[in-house]
Design brief:
This protein is an alpha+beta fold. 35% of the residues lie in helices and 26% in strands. It has a domain at 30-35 and 89-182. It contains six helices and eight strands, in the order αβαααβαββββββα. A hairpin with an 8-residue loop joins β6 (150-155) and β7 (164-169). The longest helix is centred in the last third of the chain and has 26 residues, at 185-210. The relative contact order is 0.18.
């Protein structure tokens, strides 16, 4: 469930739907940091064409970058998002005392009439994921709560004094994404399956490369001293 939620989050964060700002409720303690809006009226078509063209032209890429480009399979992903009309995604900063369950419960109370909850996941500490959708998935809203970075500070009064290390929690991240239009299930399923397969293959190759066989001991040949010539008696 964690892998599925993370994969959905990655997709929706990159390809963000749009109604008026008032349509998407904002958690009271959240502070807006970034907002991205794509629609058929502006650059959404450009994004689809770019993904398709980039995917086909970079098919021969080699090395580690080439492996990840092939794993993303942008041509198939472009087909999967073809029916999508608008996407809006907003990223918020959360205070250090945030509680994922409380945030997801807030949005559950907002998306009621005509909406149904498709996902609820709070299995990991300080993380939470939820998906809401209308009938036939005509509109979809993804809620993702993730921990922020942790700052590490080290202090020492003198060389003789013990060094003290302290961590500072700088809060978390809330991503609210709204999609208008239905993803093409066939292409999206194909893309998701290939992505998981390719990424697992890349990880397996990396782990195999890290496991090096033990070096064989170098055996030096034993050099025998040359035999002394035998003197004949006169």
């Amino acid at each position: 469930m964690r892998i599925l939620a993370a994969a959905l989050c990655a997709l929706f964060v990159v390809y963000l739907p749009a109604h008026s700002q008032s349509f998407l409720p904002i958690y009271p303690k959240a502070e807006l940091v970034t907002e991205v809006v794509l629609s058929d009226e502006d650059i959404l078509n450009f994004v689809r064409q770019f993904m398709s063209q980039f995917g086909s032209s970079s098919a021969g890429a080699t090395g580690e970058i080439g492996q990840y480009v092939r794993a993303l399979d942008l041509e198939t992903l472009a087909k999967a998002i073809q029916p999508v009309r608008e996407i809006r995604s907003s990223q918020f900063h959360l205070p250090s005392e945030y509680e994922p369950r409380q945030i997801l419960s807030f949005y559950s109370s907002e998306f009621t009439n005509g909406w149904s909850r498709k996902l609820w996941d709070v299995s990991q500490p300080r993380q939470g994921y939820s998906i809401f959708a209308t009938q036939n998935m005509a509109e979809t809203v993804l809620i993702a709560v993730m921990p922020g970075a942790v700052k590490l500070s080290v202090t020492s009064e003198s060389k003789e004094a013990k060094t003290e290390a302290a961590t500072q929690d700088i809060g978390g991240t809330l991503v609210v994404t709204h999609i208008i239009g239905t993803l093409d299930a066939q292409y999206f399923g194909q893309w998701m399956g290939n992505l998981v397969k390719k990424i697992s293959e890349i990880d397996a190759k990396k782990k195999a490369a890290e496991i090096k066989p033990a070096a064989k001991p170098i055996v030096k040949p034993v050099v025998k001293p040359a035999a002394k010539p035998v003197k004949k008696a006169k």
